[in-house]
């Protein structure tokens, strides 16, 4: 995909604040509103901009516990993988899930209210999945960095 420096600047601005108007973005990248809007529209159609969302404050919403869980499955056949992944997609507490290399099969980021809620989620959901062999959980103590922005400098 051929991205111009202006495209990269537009993407960077939208990553920082998706509520900016085309006119506000255009002003920062030296374009008028219409050509800027057309570029944004093209970036959306090409799939570079998937969606625009509001980032919520988890702590203010009472969702202050972040758990990183490493999951090992008892079997790695296609059916077990698909079944586990379908289950995970249905759990609101799981905000990210990755297949990984190494001693685990999956890496999950789970957000809950507190340790009691995590224990309930673990017992009622994750441990009930017949494919799960074991779970190793780590509680996040302090958040040092949090960002949803992708490193676009490599495109400049």
Describe what you observe in this structure.
The chain contains 5 helices and 4 strands; from the N terminus they run H-H-H-E-H-E-E-H-E. It has 156 residues and is α+β, with helices and mostly antiparallel strands. The two termini are 13 Å apart.
Short précis:
This protein has 156 residues and is an alpha+beta fold. The protein is 35% helix and 19% strand.
How would you summarize the topology of this molecule?
Blueprint: H1 5-16, H2 22-29, H3 33-45, E1 65-73, H4 78-89, E2 94-99, E3 106-112, H5 115-124, E4 132-139
Helix pairs in contact: 2-3
Gyration radius over CA = 20 Å
Main sheet makeup: 4 strands, antiparallel
Q: Quick check: average pLDDT? A: 95
Class based on secondary structure composition and strand pairing:
alpha+beta
Q: Which word captures the global form?
A: elongated
| SSE topology string | HHHEHEEHE
State which percent range the strand residues make up: 15-25%
| Uncertain stretches | none
Q: Total helix count? A: 5
Number of strands: 4
CA-CA gap between termini: 13 Å
- Secondary structure: helix percent: 25-40%
- What is the strand arrangement across the widest sheet? 2-3-1-4
List keywords for this structure.
156 residues, alpha+beta, 5 helices, 4 strands, elongated
